[in-house]
């Protein structure tokens, strides 16, 4: 090999190592979100009638999912959310489902059927809650909220699990 080829190879190795050294700073920059701060000052009943304060989840990365039992895209997303919760809950990640259904018994049945293992709250007739996270033109509406309370992602309609997981991983 000529000296120029060896020089290029050494340069490439140094560039890769330099990139690795800057990776922590890049990851830190990705964690900050320029979104609005989530209003977590709500207390909502869960499916068992117990009061749950949304601000009790602050300090975690929160996936807040507004959904309904009659919503096909919601049914498609929920198994993935269960998987994400299982995968990342030990790292400070929580999924909070907010059902907009009027029947608690239907929601309980749905939770059992889908084996939902994260908190499910009843958001029916809670326009104050939905307006706090507006715009919410339909369901599902999914938000990812950083540990500091900034909304880093919001989407209405079906969202790919990969897209949500990438956002979550940058915030953990």
Folded structure, characterized:
The protein is 43% helix and 20% strand. The protein is an alpha/beta fold. The strands form 2 sheets. The protein has a 5-stranded mixed β-sheet with strand order 5-4-3-6-7, with helices on one face. It has a two-stranded antiparallel sheet with strand order 1-2. The longest helix is centred in the first third of the chain and has 29 residues, at 3-31. The termini are far apart.
User: Low-confidence spans: pLDDT under 50, at least 5 residues?
Assistant: 2-31
CATH architecture title of the largest domain? 3-Layer(aba) Sandwich
How many DSSP H or I helices? 5
CATH class of the largest domain: Alpha Beta
CATH topology (fold) name of the largest domain:
Glutaredoxin
Largest sheet: 5 strands, mixed
CATH superfamily of the largest domain: Glutaredoxin
Please, what is the average pLDDT? Answer: 82
Multimeric state of these chains? single chain
The order of strands across the largest sheet is 5-4-3-6-7
Give the tally of β-strands: 7
Helix content: 40-55%
- Distance from N terminus to C terminus (CA atoms, Å) equals 45 Å
Shape: globular
What structural class is derived from the secondary structure elements?
Answer: alpha/beta
Structural domain count: 2
Overall radius of gyration: 20 Å
Bin the strand percentage.
15-25%
H-E string: HEEEHEHEHEEH
SSE arrangement:
Elements: H1 3-31, E1 43-45, E2 51-53, E3 61-67, H2 72-88, E4 93-99, H3 104-114, E5 120-122, H4 127-132, E6 141-145, E7 151-156, H5 161-171
Parallel strand pairs: 3-4, 4-5
Antiparallel strand pairs: 1-2, 3-6, 6-7
């Amino acid at each position: 090999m000529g000296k120029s080829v060896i020089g290029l190879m050494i340069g490439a190795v140094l560039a890769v190592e330099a990139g690795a050294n800057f990776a922590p700073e890049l990851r830190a920059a990705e964690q900050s979100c320029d979104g609005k701060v989530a209003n977590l000052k709500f207390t909502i009943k869960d499916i068992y009638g117990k009061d749950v304060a949304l601000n009790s989840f602050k300090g975690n990365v929160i996936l807040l999912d507004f959904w309904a039992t009659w919503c096909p895209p919601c049914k498609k997303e929920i198994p993935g959310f269960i998987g994400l919760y299982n995968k990342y809950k030990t790292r400070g990640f929580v999924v909070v489902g907010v059902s907009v259904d009027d029947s608690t018994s239907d929601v309980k049945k749905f939770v059992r059927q889908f084996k939902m293992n994260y908190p499910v709250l009843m958001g029916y007739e809670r326009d104050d809650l939905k307006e706090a996270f507006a715009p919410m033109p339909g369901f599902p509406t999914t938000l990812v909220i950083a540990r500091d309370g900034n909304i880093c992602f919001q989407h209405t309609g079906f969202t790919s699990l990969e897209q949500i997981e990438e956002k979550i991983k940058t915030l953990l």
